[in-house]
Amino acid sequence: MFFKVLRDIAKPQWFDIINCLKRSTGLSVAELSESLGMSYMGIKQHCVELHKRGYLDTWRRPKAVGRPEKAYRLTSKAEPLFPQMGNDFTEILLKTVEKTYGAASGEKLLFGFFQELAQSYLAKIKGDSLADRATHFAKIREIEGYVSTCEIDNDGKIRIVEYHSPYQGIIEQYPMINNMEDQMIGKVLSANVTRAEERASGLVKFTFKLN
Length: 211
Fold this sequence. Notes:
- By secondary structure, the chain is of the alpha+beta class.
- The chain folds into 2 domains: 2-75, Winged helix-like DNA-binding domain superfamily/Winged helix DNA-binding domain (Arc Repressor Mutant, subunit A, Orthogonal Bundle); 88-210, 2-Layer Sandwich (Muramoyl-pentapeptide Carboxypeptidase, domain 2).
- It has helices at residues 2-9, 12-22, 29-36, 40-52, 88-101, 105-124, 130-144, 176-189; strands at residues 56-61, 69-74, 148-152, 158-162, 193-200, 203-210.
- Strands 3-4-6-5 form a 4-stranded antiparallel sheet, covered by helices on one side.
């Protein structure tokens, strides 16, 4: 929601570029131009300005043939534009609970949160097959700001790919969140979940393999 509001009051092209890059591990100007339906020079000018402001990083990406091409990816400065759980209120709440009720109480609070989240998803998810449920789950997560999609390959293998996690601000203090989230997804979809992470500059990609 915060991202959508900002898009309405700032340059919409910048936010379209940021949103597109958020769903990738980096794109060239040509790829951005094709994806967004904007001119090459227009995209290039916007990317240069976003790079100057610290929101984009560049690197030379190898090509199968020819010289490496310049590609853009997000930096960590763009992270606050997307939904966050790790704000001051959340951290203060968890620390206060731990001081009042003991060191394990913060973890118990998070466990309860993911239990409630699972029940919320279960009430919304529709579909008889794992593929249907996973697709619906990804659509809900996309609306919630996880930048989520469901991918099904030719062999029928299913995975959910997400390019944002609102828990990143508190994950260092509470690393058990990843396991809790995996268990929550498994419960909602009635599947075994295997998580993989990919990080580069300000980009993060979470892949949840389901079976």
